[in-house]
């Protein structure tokens, strides 16, 4: 028996998220079917986490146990030849049988992208939330330090969350403004990329944080409201859940993996 760790990149526009759902058409479903076509095995892969419908991934790890003896260096091309064009396996390696892509993860980073320009980018429309109104980026930046540290994030969790604990640790948050694509002669704010790194995230957590940040940027909330919302531990005190298409799982980090 072998334990293979792979990373996958996907455009989540046409899928119901990563994890298998009763209605099918998830990234996991397609990967498992590709493995079945390749090896004849009916198996379950284990992702580093789940993503919502419409959410994308730059690098999402997953692992699975297999009896196949296909050399590890051949897996990526073999699977990609059996996967839809918007799902691509990037890397593959053999890891100890005790390794688990979710339980072994130490840090995860998500990116949420906001198009702050007046006109939507037709080429990036599936990967950015379009907000043509002016946002106060300084106010948004001022609210971010309140999220750093270990807190109960109940206010920023879906009401349907089934987790026993909503305590998570956020290590870093930042907003990067990219104005390189601004069209001369237009009122453009550029693309705002919000990055957040933590030891784990709750259902809809990043999207609810983003909905709250957007209200701060619109002047509907003060930057300090991020602190009071966090302390309230009440979903009703936070902003709306931001659209899924602007969210991307950016990276997942592990300690050094040794055999």
From TrEMBL:
The active site is at 52 (nucleophile). GO terms for biological process: tRNA pseudouridine synthesis. It holds the Pfam family PseudoU_synth_1. This is tRNA pseudouridine synthase A. Its EC number is 5.4.99.12. GO terms for molecular function: RNA binding; tRNA pseudouridine(38-40) synthase activity. PANTHER family: PSEUDOURIDYLATE SYNTHASE, TRNA PSEUDOURIDINE SYNTHASE-LIKE 1. Substrate binds at residue 110. It comes from the Bacteria. It catalyses: uridine(38/39/40) in tRNA = pseudouridine(38/39/40) in tRNA. Belongs to the tRNA pseudouridine synthase TruA family. Keywords: Isomerase, tRNA processing.
């Amino acid at each position: 028996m072998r334990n293979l760790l792979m990373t996958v990149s996907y455009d989540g526009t046409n899928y119901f998220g990563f994890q298998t759902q009763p209605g099918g058409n998830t990234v996991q479903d397609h990967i498992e079917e590709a493995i079945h076509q390749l090896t004849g095995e009916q198996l379950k892969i284990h992702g580093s986490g789940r993503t919502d419908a419409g959410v994308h991934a730059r690098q999402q790890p997953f692992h699975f146990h297999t009896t196949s003896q296909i050399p590890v260096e051949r897996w990526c091309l073999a699977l990609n030849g059996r996967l839809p064009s918007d799902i691509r396996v990037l890397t593959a390696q053999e890891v100890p049988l005790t390794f688990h892509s979710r339980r072994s993860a130490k840090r995860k980073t998500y990116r949420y992208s906001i198009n702050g320009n007046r006109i939507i980018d037709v080429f990036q429309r599936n990967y950015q939330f379009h907000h043509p109104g002016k946002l106060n980026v300084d106010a948004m930046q001022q609210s971010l330090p309140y999220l750093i540290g270990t807190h109960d994030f109940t206010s920023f969790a879906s009401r349907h969350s089934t987790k026993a604990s909503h305590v998570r640790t956020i290590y870093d948050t930042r907003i990067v403004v990219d104005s390189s694509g601004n069209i001369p002669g237009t009122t453009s704010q550029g693309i705002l990329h919000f990055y957040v790194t933590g030891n784990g995230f709750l259902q809809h957590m990043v999207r609810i944080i983003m909905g709250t940040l957007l209200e701060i940027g619109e002047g509907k909330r003060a930057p300090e409201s991020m602190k009071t919302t966090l302390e309230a531990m009440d979903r009703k005190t936070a902003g709306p859940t931001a659209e899924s298409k602007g969210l991307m799982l950016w990276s997942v980090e592990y300690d050094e993996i040794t055999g």
